[in-house]
Amino acid sequence: MKKILPIFVVALSLALVWVVFFWQPQKQEHSTSHAASNQLVGGDFLLQSAKGGIELKNFRGKVMLIYFGYTWCPDVCPTNLAMMAGALGQLTEQEKDKVQGLFISVDPERDNVNRLAEYTAFFHPSIIGATSDAQAVKELASRYGSVYQKVQQDSATGYVVDHSSETYVVDPEGKLVERLPHGAPPEEILNSIRKYM
User: Do residues 159 and 150 make contact, with C-beta atoms less than 8 angstroms apart?
Assistant: First the structure.
C-alpha cells in the first residue's frame, strides 16, 4: 500500500499539470446576434447576493459578463474569472460604470452569499457573486445554455460539479448577445464589452 500511494500522487499531479497547461475545451462558435442562432434566450433572473436580491433589470444600461461556476472549482472557474478581471482592469474610468461582472454559483448547497462575496472579491471588486435555490439556478442556467452536473467523489469536498465554461455577454438592453469560450483572453473580452457599449 505504501508503494501505491506515491505512484497515485505522481499520476494525479501529472494529470493536474496536463489539465492546467494543455487541456483546451472545444471552442464553440460565437453568436453575435442575440444568440438566437443557438436557441438561447437568456433573460431575467432573481438571485441573492451578499448585498441582497438582484435582477437583470437592475443592470440595464450596462454590458454584463455572466459566468456560471462554483467556488470549489479547482481550475476552470479561477481561469475564467482571472481573464474577466483582466478585462475589467483595462476599462477606462468612463467605461467602468457601464460594465458588470456576475458570477452565478451552480452549487448553492455550499456557496452561500458571503462565501461568494469573498471569492469574487479575490478576482475583482466589481464582480458580484450570487446564487439562488437549486431549481431556480438550473432553470436560469438552461436559458443561458450553461450545463452542469454534480459528480460524487471520495475526497475532502465530497463532490465536484462538472460544468460548461463559457462567459455570456448581455447587452445594455438585457439581451444575450454573445458567448465567449473558456479561457478567452482579456483582450477578447474587452473587445466584446466595447462592441456592445
Answer: yes
- What's the average pLDDT block by block, 10 residues per block, for the chain (197 residues)? 42 40 41 46 95 96 98 94 98 96 96 98 97 97 95 82 95 97 96 97
CA distance 169 to 32: 10
Distance between CA atoms of residues 118 and 133, nearest Å: 20
Residues 6+ apart with CB under 8 A from 188: 180
Structural Rg of the chain based on CA atoms: 17
* SS3 readout for 56-88: HHHHCCCEEEEEEECCCCCCHHHHHHHHHHHHH
Right CATH number for 32-196 from 3.40.50.10490, 3.40.640.10, 3.40.30.10, 3.30.420.10?
A: 3.40.30.10
Rounded-to-integer distance, Cα 92 and Cα 6, Å: 50
Strands 52-55 and 46-49: antiparallel
Amino acid in position 115: R
CA 58 to chain centroid? 19
Helix (H) or strand (E) holding 47: strand 46-49
What does the DSSP 8-state code read for residue 75?
S
* 133 phi and psi angles, rounded to 5 deg: -70, 160
